[in-house]
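Title: Prediction job returns without error message
Component: structure pipeline
Severity: low
Priority: P3
Assignee: unassigned

Description:
Job completed but the reporter wants confirmation the result is attached to the right record. Sequence as submitted:
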Amino acid sequence: MSPIGTILPQDRRVLVTPTISTIIQFRTIDWGMEDCRLHMSVPALGGGDTARAPNISVVLYRLNQTYPLDTAELTFQSRPPRVAKIEDIELSRAEYTVWSRQFACKADDVLTFELGCRGISNNDCSLEWWQKQGSDPAVYLTQHATV
């Protein structure tokens, strides 16, 4: 807290396990920039013999949430409902993974996504990082001009 309100830290925790998912929100703010692209870039995960170790499979969903979430009140029961599965994403233990998806967006939209494991029986699904501005690993959104 500060005299002008809450200031959120730039570092964000991303945690995905068979029982935990991460909800990610973005606000599109620019008019005439209605071409959005969601990106995920993750360096090689390593972990033992990378030639034989299975890759980590995560799934990305679009959630039905059009306003900023109150993270202090967010629980499993209160999380927004899933609207659509965007894609299963394979994160490599041996190679750098770069993934992106283009879609239309409007100025001042709040876009909400959930990153989780593909099924709760996926014991090889464990992923964690602290996302810092301008560094990898990262999940981020870019906007491009349409006018």
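Comment from assignee: result matches the submitted record. Residues 17 and 126 are 5 Å apart (CA to CA).
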